[in-house]
């Protein structure tokens, strides 16, 4: 620990070793205030937040309708649960109805949770539970995609296709298998290899993991059809792509046929409260609503459907469904792509990929070799020192600004990136 840190610093956090945190952090850079799409640190420095906190602060720090809804709920009913008993908070009933109405039919039933990881686990567990209740107990395998990301946890880590997590978190769920590429032939080949009669679900993202590429609608539509033909549940993880990030409420609504389940999170509450949801199709719900064994789905936690989160979610839906809001995200995204494309010729800057407020700037050396994840992380620190907060990934810089980014802030983002690219010392 450096001398800049107090001796009683007690927070153990992040995915990197704490020695890396103490090396790269400075208490003067700890964040103390949010203002619109910017944050301010303890030393008074101002940053444009191009990572939306952790991709979840979709409406910036100053969305008063969401804050006011949460304040009102605190004064009305500050706590409640939907996990047990027969008296759910009314605000949870209202929010579930509003959210379900925005989903493609027959996705009309909502289970609430606190994180995307929790709800991807719930999706896989619900699929298996459904099989046991309907007399198919051998259908327990779940197929996921190498390099896909579905969170961390006892089952979520297994679903996540990152080998390093598997290596160091083992033993994992033995009934999760991964394909090496997100292609229809590979997924179907693995299902056949396992045996259709033993596969319960396939879990995919519209945009793979943190790869921030383009959405492949034809692939998803074909996957829905092929899974449906095999009676395999298709779970679409839209924790990142949902709630307006790509300029629509969900990617799933663009499909000709809806998947069996959709997982939502992050932007559901605009990052103002822990909130996630699993939206389930009517066929699964109907099979479990009155089961032969008097047992409901045994999954949930105390704070599921928390009234403060429900109030925040309702207020966010008001913003997202306001006339022109989602179309404005798509338009601003196109404008930002145009500006980012103008960085061509700057050291390391490559093509821009993505849609809405879910973009990536590819980074490569002069010989075309992509920057390593360590190099991109060092560049992230250069961006931070220039007043721009970003994330990092192998070979590219994810850009996930708030959906409320203005045209002027698009220019600010690109100007800060240009300055950082010119100041960054490239290492091999």
From TrEMBL:
Transferase is among the record's keywords: yes
Origin superkingdom: Bacteria
One Pfam family in the UniProt entry: Aminotran_3
Keywords on record: Aminotransferase, Pyridoxal phosphate, Transferase
InterPro entries, sorted: Aminotrans_3, Aminotrans_3_PPA_site, PyrdxlP-dep_Trfase, PyrdxlP-dep_Trfase_major, PyrdxlP-dep_Trfase_small
GO MF annotation terms: pyridoxal phosphate binding; transaminase activity
Family assignment from sequence similarity: Belongs to the class-III pyridoxal-phosphate-dependent aminotransferase family.
Listed name of the protein: Adenosylmethionine-8-amino-7-oxononanoate aminotransferase
Native organism: Micromonospora echinospora
